[in-house]
Amino acid sequence: MTDAVSARMKQRLAGAMEVLGRHGLLLLTLAAGLIPALLLALAAGGVYEAVVEEDGVAGLDQPVLDAAITLRSPGVDTAVTWLTNLGGTIGLPVLAAAAVLALCRWQRSWTPLILTASAAAGSLLLTVAGKALVGRSRPPLSDAVPPYEHSASFPSGHSLNSVVVIGTLAYLLVLYLNTRRSRFLTVLAGVVFVLAIGLSRVYLGHHWLTDVLVAWILGLAWLAILITVHQLLHARRLRSLPAG
User: Fold this and answer.
1) What are the domain boundaries of the chain?
2) Cα dihedral 19/25/26/31 (nearest 10)
3) Residue 71, class by beta-carbon neighbours within 10 Å (0-12 exposed, 13-18 middle, 19+ buried)?
4) Residue 161, φ and ψ in degrees, nearest 5
5) What mean pLDDT comes out for the span 221-232?
6) Between residues 36 and 33, which one has the greater pLDDT?
7) Class of domain 27-232
8) pLDDT class for 40, splitting at 50, 70, 90?
9) Chain-centre distance of CA 144, in angstroms?
10) In this structure, what is the dihedral angle of CA atoms 90, 92, 93, 96, given to the nearest 10 degrees?
11) What is the 3-state secondary structure (H, E, C) of the chain?
12) Cα–chain-centroid distance for residue 89?
């Protein structure tokens, strides 16, 4: 290798290191968000394939529904129906609107409104597209608790929307909380709510287990992308501020 070639390689390497130094945080943020999103998308594809082929994890659908039926009673059915309505087309928007209003007032910013609206729009699009693409039937009405639902089953809209909307709200709240305990409790409350909504759909016989699983996975993937974009924009804004 000649000295001239070696010098050019060193110069290019130095230039690459300089770029990485300037944009390292942005690149790490991008990787931290998009890699999990890609893995989750692959996992969702695996569940979809299992549903289409009627094997793999889809083999749990009927046994899990049968087990849920054995747990039912009039009182529990009423309580779970009330719970599942919190993640529905009326309950979740009302909860989200109240939370967004509070966050906007607290943070003195429109960011919570913009981010949550974007999250909800993407979640709705994923739900509608998934139902149209797969067209899967819900469990038999004889195995369901009224009021009955008749739209396509895959994915569960309640579950997907809950992951995305509640996840976005929890993320926005965690950004402004000062203690590790408060941040942990916020995330824990969000996880419990999302799990409860998803499991309520199976308990009531409104969805198969795999409808809920793929909804959770798709919701987490979309949430990862949203958080990544927000972090990148935030980092870019900080970089544009004058020093000192």
Assistant:
1) 27-232
2) 110
3) exposed
4) -65, -35
5) 89
6) 36
7) mainly alpha
8) confident
9) 26
10) 160
11) CCHHHHHHHHHHHHHHHHHHHHHHHHHHHHHHHHHHHHHHHHHHHHHHHHHHHCCHHHHHHHHHHHHHHHCCCHHHHHHHHHHHHCCCCCHHHHHHHHHHHHHHHHHCCCHHHHHHHHHHHHHHHHHHHHHHHHCCCCCCHHHCCCCCCCCCCCCCHHHHHHHHHHHHHHHHHHHHCCCHHHHHHHHHHHHHHHHHHHHHHHHCCCCCHHHHHHHHHHHHHHHHHHHHHHHHHHHHHHHHCCCC
12) 17
Q: Per the omega criterion (within 30 degrees of 0), is the bond before 36 cis? A: no
Structure tokens at 221: 């993937």
Q: How far apart are CA 84 and CA 18, in angstroms?
A: 52
* Separation of alpha carbons 210 and 51, rounded Å: 7
pLDDT recorded at residue 31: 64
Tokens 């943020």 belong to residue: 29
Report residue 153 as tokens: 């089953």
What are the structure tokens assigned to 180, written together?
């590790």
Residue 222 C-alpha from the chain's centroid:
5
Does residue 56 contact residue 45 with C-beta atoms inside 8 Å? no
**Crossing angle of helices 157-176 and 91-107, rounded to 10°:** 10
pLDDT at 5: 46
Token pair 């804004």 in the structure block, residue: 237
